[in-house]
Amino acid sequence: MAKERTLGMTVVVVVDLLFSAVGFVLSLLGIAAALLGAKQTILVEGSMGMRNAMAAQQALSLHLLSLSLYGLLVSSVALVSAVALFLMWRSARPLNLTYASLAIARGLAVFCFPALSASATANGSGIPARLIGLCLSLVYPGILLMLFSRRDWKVVFATKR
Hints:
Layout: H1 7-48, H2 55-86, H3 92-112, H4 118-122, H5 127-149, H6 151-156
Helix pairs in contact: 1-2, 2-3, 3-5
């Protein structure tokens, strides 16, 4: 059976590439913000001569750094899965399923740690805004899980034994 990319698969490639590019940019900005926050903490504590004066800001910077590095990982998997799907590799299905799982885990992490979400702290909207953000962050990964669980998509990427 010849593997032909359908229109739906092409759309998934484009959306994967879009989310990958946006994810890379946001993750790199998050890493830069975390490093600048850590530098500011070191400068303030050094000028005051007090250790652990800004422990909360240090913790926030570390959490932001870890979430941003995880976002970089998710974006990398999205890029590889888009390339695999575009080239119709057998690994495209497991890569897209991995990307969807990692993206769901990232959405849950942002929901569970509201201090890492700028919208929840900036406008004080709390739980309702975080729930909406969680739902929106789960839409595309959910679509990927549904598409790659369909029989016709499974058959296209089935390995020959």
